[in-house]
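[Q] Does anyone have a clean structure-token version of this?
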Amino acid sequence: MTLQDRPAKGAWGMTALIFLFMLINFADKMVIGLAAKPIMDELKLTPEQFGLIGSAFFFVFPFSAVLVGFIANRAQARQTLLVMAVFWSMLQFPMLSMVSFEILIACRIALGAAEGPAAPVATHALYKWFPDSLRAMPTAIVAQGSAIGVVVAVPALNWIIVNHSWHWAFAALGVAGLLWAVLWFFFGREGTLVDPPVAATAAGGRPVPYRHLLTCPSIVAVCCAGFASYWGLALGLTWFTSYLVDGLGYSQTVGGNLSVLPWLFGMVVVLVGGWISQSLKARGVSSRVSRGVFASAAVVLGGCILPLIGLTDVPVLKLAILMVGTAIGSTIYVVAPMVVSELTPQPQRAAMLAIVTSIVTLGGVIAPLAMGAVVQSAATRLAGYDLGFTLLGALLLAGGVIGLLFIRPETDRKRLASLVP
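[A] Here you go.
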């Protein structure tokens, strides 16, 4: 076994720290949805206004991801992660004061700018420790920072919201982010593994023009499947607790605690899906099947399940349909960065991961506001929510089918290699 066939020394320790980074990152995103009802009551907000707050987080999220992604091509990922963590932690503390609708939107926009580059830069940092063939499981583990962040944080944050107010929930996340920054300052290190060039020729070390990478069918298809899935994730972050409390009639305590269920299920899906994908790849199965077909089929399945939510009036069944339908396709979050990395020269990887993330997360800009408009215009809140999740199902179906048809990494890698100047 060569050095390129195994992780670098210390890889799993860095994976643990980057996992904690993503855990806090997603807890920061989740808190706004968890506190939806108290925030709407205190600030006298309509569903459309709250949807705007949910979307505000993503207004500059994609642009900051691309900007910092290009910086991370040249700067150390270690330093970039540290700056982001300190910045987004400090942005939580203004929530302790008397907050208005306008201040809340401004803080969410700034927080989105700070957190936009988190996933691509964290993935880029992680891939400096693992060769391509061994990236599925560490990618799945780091991706589970989102699910476990919700599972761990939701009961604690919900308790703070119920017993102290939603303001203190934001402050608690600020403290957690600063504690991670201290850990990373002392223990975080930069990986040393270098990927082989896309083209195995004398010119193979040269960059592939970005216009060819951005129009590569596999990367475009990954963006489509990821966009649809992230639409569902954004709805979960912003509207899931409100759906349980405002739509299905659960109390804030019960609804908040039930909010962990989709994330628990998604955690199992991502870990098992990542293991299956890596096992298939290790057995010689093509990336087309082990990454593209496998993940896209799961997205299609979610799209088929979600429209069933309007066919039952039983709250438990509605919850089960929503949980399974939104989470079953979560393996796409593991597969997407691996497909991009497989097709992109390492010196361009951070930027391409950031660009793909920015395209995928555009779903977060539109989804919360669209759901708010649908809920406000519906005959009842519950009918509005059901329609919004049914529309999500149609989007997942379309994105998954595009992924099934066009994610072909081996074919596209050969084509890109022929285009190296």
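[Q] Thanks! Anything notable?
[A] The chain has one domain: 10-189+208-418.
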